[in-house]
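The methods section describes the discrete structure representation at length, but only in general terms. An entry of this sort, consisting of the sequence and the corresponding backbone structure tokens, reads as follows:
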Amino acid sequence: MLKEFEVSSTEAAFFAEWPWLPNVGPGANASALPNLKTLTLHHTPFKWSSPILRNLHVLNLRALPITHLPLDRILFILSNNPELKSVSLHFQGVLAPVLPLSTVTLPHVTTFSLGGHPLLSQLLESLILPNLDSLTLDIEARDPIEDIVSGLLTRSNRPPIQHLSLAYGLMPNVANFYYGPGGIVITWNTLLAELPLLKSLHIGGTSVEPLLSALGPPEDDPNNTGPSTLNNSNNANTPAWVCPNLESIAMKSCHAHGEGVQRLVQMVEARNPQGGQLALSLNGITPVRLTRLELHDCAALGEDIMNWLDQRIADVVCVDPSYER
């Protein structure tokens, strides 16, 4: 009758295999837990081929640091659960695939979270998630992360993603994530233009200026020409808002240079005009007002700017960088 099973440890301990877990071996079979639909194993040893890892709806796995699975075996776990709706995987140790990776479609997944080793980006490239609503990536990527996300969106026929989180859980280990001067995303306009339904954006370890420029008033960003084709094909050269449904922005350890604070003010002024007025409509699109803004270890704003933000956004959280505290 068991439907939900969890064994979690906050810290990783170096356990040997636990024989009491339903694993492949004498007496173990796929029908041992016929009604199990939700499984959570955090820092708990398990076998990739265990019958406990089959026919699930919710799967949360955080492997032990000493666990090093080939990528194709992690993909095997997902392929054995075609009815999955929510997935959270974190593997610090991942080996190159032994068998060629095949494409796996998970038609019911709405929430997908992936974190850990850089090779996990190849796992994402093998997935099709047509109904994805929330995507969280905390991979120590070696390639431009926007290419990985864009590829997933294309393969999945533009799923209705409303929440996107990139490297937010990795911070403050920023140094382990950078692969270039642009931070985790090089071309924000290209990526955000593919997410017209996005409501919540969480970002860690990137430059503030390019991100805020992309989210700000289109006429202020000379590179902002791509999204217009999504709104009005007859005015391909007319700038347009990206993510017009965006309500919440959270940034962590995002370094701000000379114009970072100025870009923040411009973005908020454009999306949340004073007095509750609507933002400027472009190509028939008017962005909704921001309701929440979080800045953790990004920039020291000062009391005057904080007061200004509080007048325009209902919920503002700002934690100054450690060197300013």
